[in-house]
Every structure is written in C-alpha cells, then in structure tokens.
Amino acid sequence: MTTVAHPAATASATRPLDEARTQLAHAVDRLGLDEGLHRMMAQPRREMTVLVPLRRDDGTPTVVTGHRVQHNFWRGPTKGGLRFSPHVDLDEVRALAMWMTWKCALVNLPYGGAKGGVRIDPRSFSPAELERVTRRYTAEILPIIGPEVDIPAPDVGTDEQTMAWMMDTYSVSRGHTVPGVVTGKPIALGGSQGRAEATSRGVAHLALLALESRGIRADAATAAVQGFGKVGRDAARFLAEAGVRVVAVSDADGAVADEAGIDIGRLAAHVDRTGTVAGFAEASAIPASEVVLADVDLLVPAAIEGVITADNAASVRARVIVEGANGPTTTAADAILAARDVLVVPDILANAGGVIVSYFEWVQGNTALWWSKGEVEQRLTRLLEEAWEDVRAYSARTGTTLREAAMCRAVARVAEAQRLRGLYP
Ligand code: GLU
Questions:
Q1: Best mutation site among 111, 149, 199 for ligand 1, i.e. most ligand atoms within 8 A of its Cβ?
Q2: Is residue 410 scored above 60 in pLDDT?
Q3: Helix axes 373-398, 402-421, angle to 10 degrees
Q4: What is the SS3 assignment for 120?
Q5: Looking at the structure, do residues 158 and 43 belong to the same domain, yes or no?
Q6: Residue 100's closest CA among 151, 139, 134?
Q7: Model pLDDT for residues 389-405, shown as the tens digit of each residue
Q8: Cis-peptide into 425, omega within 30 deg
Q9: I need a labelling partner for 4 at 20 to 30 A (CA). Which of 174, 195, 307, 316 fits?
Q10: What three-state secondary structure class fits 289?
Q11: What is the DSSP string of 169-230?
Q12: Using CA positions, which residue lies closest to atom 9 of ligand 1?
C-alpha cells in the first residue's frame, strides 16, 4: 500500500502557520499597513484547547486533544471547519483559521475566520466512538460557539453526520433546536441544497475559468487530482463532465493513472466499495507522489497542506494549479511556480465555494426560507466570478500573482473593517 507522507515528515517541511504569516506579512507590506495592525492580524483573537475524555467501544477510557481557534472577529462571527486528523496541532489550526478570515473577506461574506481540530485518526474510530468524540468536543467548546459567535462546518475527516451531532449537542444544552450553530448539515436538518458539492463545484468552475484564461479549452485539457475526498472527488467529476480528461487521481492510500482518462463515476463506485482509489482495475497504479508531477494542463491539489514545496515545484508540469486544499503550496514553491509562469489559483479563492454555500445555509436557516438548488448554484457562481474578476484585475494592475492579489484584497477589507470600528476603549 502506498501512503502519502504527511508534509511534516518530508525534508522540505514548512509549518502552515509560518506560511500563513509570511503571506500576511507580504500583503501588509504591499498595502503599507502599520505594524500594530499587522500584529493584531498575525495572531488569533481567541483560542481554546480542550482535553476530550472518551470511552472506546471496549470500555477503555482515553483522552484526545481538541482545539478551536477564532482568528478574527472584525467582519462578523467567525466561521470555519472542524478537522479530525492525526496530524492536527494547535499551530496548524491557527494557520487554517487565519486562512478562513482571508477567504471569507475575499468573497465578501460577513464573517471572520475560525477552525477546529481534534487529533484523532477517524478511520480507526467506530461510528459510535466518533459520535462520542464529537459530542464531548462540542460540549467542551460550547462557551465559544453559537450562531452569532462561531459557526463550525465540515473539513478533513468530518462530514454532515458530524455536524448533525454537533447541532444536536448544542441544541440540547440550549433547550431548543439551533440549526444556525453549524453549517454543512444534512438537508433533512436544515442543510442547504448544493452544500455537499459546493467546494468541488467552485474548484471546477474556477479551474475552467483559469484554463480559459490560458487559452486551454476544457475538452482539450488534461488534469490530475490529488485527494479523492469531499473536495477532490466531485471536483474530478465536475471537470470530467465539462470535458476535461482526468488522467491521474490519488488519495491517502494510493494513486491511479490512465492517459485515456479515468472514468470518475466508476472510480467513485470502487472507492465506495473499498475505501480507496488503490486497486482500481481500470487504471494503472502509480506512486502517489507522482500525481503532483503529472504531465497535465491542470493540477488540483485537494488534500492537505504543504504538498507543493521547494523540493518538487520545479518538476510540476501542470500549467495551471487550482488549490482545492487549504495551504497546499508553500511560499518557496509559489516563487518557483511564478518564475515558470504557472498560474496558481489560490486556496482562499479556489475552494471558497464551500464556505459560500455554508453562508447561504446559515442565511436560509436564520430566515427559515429555503432556496432551490438552482438558486444556490446561481448565487454561488456569481460570488465566485465576482471574486475571480476582482482578483485578476488587481493582479494585472499591480503585477502580483493571483495569491498576492487575493491576499491584498482580503487583508485590505479586514483592515478597513478594523479602521471603521476603531479600538475600544
Ligand atoms: N472547511 C471548509 C473550508 O476550509 C468550509 C468551512 C465552512 O464552510 O465554514 O473552507
């Protein structure tokens, strides 16, 4: 079985928090913001670390660690996913929370950024154990979440069932049902049409716009997708539906390739049966590390942070990279890619579809008025296209990369909110 090494285990390991802070420092510099404001944005406003006591199915008591980090409140309540992964640590959650602040600002949602993480491998927990972890973690962070305070959502290793348990636990504590405390809920519990595939839809939509901007037609394009979970799987499907030939796909257990194009529907059925892309008989097995280096037009990293680094950026052959994951490209890799004229659509734009439809879910829940799938998709496309045009125009005007442009737009908006609110007292 091939395993994707977590970046922390590789030679060029960089910490996501260092990357996030470097990106912020560059934006602050470009915007000419003052050092006091920079300091206020470089660290989280509030963070909570909790020990989550838990009984395993065999009766053994154990304890796992969880975090919730709220990076910035200036533009509204904080928003961001909850991650279950053995690699979770406080600094990673801090970086992910900061990226949520910029993402929400960039697409003009009235939120600041937050993130949660529980350090477990969800694959080694039974559904009953996952329910107990989720409920106890929710109970521990209860004082700092709420529909007007901080609104969690799914992320790596969590799903709509996790959100249903969180919503129920919070609601029981309040004595009434509070659907707005989380987003990414099942539709039967107040989830939104189109939320489950929103991140992937946005990634695929921006990928097509990015290819077009480079003069590459969808039906002549090839793609490689790293990660076949919540984001990669449907992104691959949407790309294939648009005519893109998806020739390489990986997940944490392996990778497969087929020059003629992988049948994504059949691959998805194989994953439903076996839990991994590995062993898919209709494509050849390749080392997972080769997917980011595949000879394709488009690369979609849709797994975890730090997979395109100074070590491999010079060998990336894609002309366009669209970041489905948060933080997949390090700053050093960005410079190498920019020098090679590889177009990188940054995470805070590329994968914003998820939090955009989370916002729609929150709005629908708060107003108890439900939108059709078509309405959700139309509004999603509009917000993404506005942000895409805005970032491209800024990038062209200032000679910056799309990431630098996106960061400048987002940070400027957050700084403006602070200026208008002023400092209290
Ligand atoms: N976890 C997703 C992200 O990283 C979605 C967050 C949300 O919907 O609040 O953007």
A1: 199
A2: yes
A3: 100
A4: coil
A5: yes
A6: 151
A7: 999 999 999 999 999 99
A8: yes
A9: 195
A10: helix
A11: HHHHHHTS--GGG-SS--GGGTPPTT-TTHHHHHHHHHHHHHHHHTT--GGG-EEEEE--ST
A12: 80
Q: Which domain holds residue 207?
A: 198-350
Read off the pLDDT of residues 313-340 as tens digits, 9 standing for 90 and up: 999 999 999 999 999 999 999 999 999 9
Does 117 contact ligand 1 (Cβ within 6 A)?
A: no
Which protein residue has the closest C-alpha to ligand 1 atom 8?
355
Domain count, the chain: 2
Only one residue has tokens 């989830």, namely: 191
Is the separation of the CB atoms in 283 and 258 below 8 Å?
A: yes
387 within 8 A of 107, measured Cβ to Cβ = yes
- Active-site hit among 115, 185, 230, 373: 115
Q: Is the CB of residue 349 less than 8 Å from the CB of residue 391?
A: yes
Atom from ligand 1 closest to the CA of residue 80: 9
Q: Is the CB of 79 under 6 A from ligand 1?
A: yes
Whether residues 178 and 202 fall in one domain: no
Q: Which atom of ligand 1 is nearest to the CA of 351?
A: 10
Q: Radius of gyration (Cα) for the chain, nearest Å?
A: 20
pLDDT for position 189: 97
Asked if 356 and 107 touch (Cβ cutoff 8 Å), the reply is: yes
8 falls in which pLDDT band (50, 70, 90)? Answer: very low
**In a shared domain, residues 153 and 233:** no
Q: Are residues 287 and 162 in the same domain?
A: no
The token pair that represents 202 in the structure block:
């946005």
- 115 classed as catalytic: yes
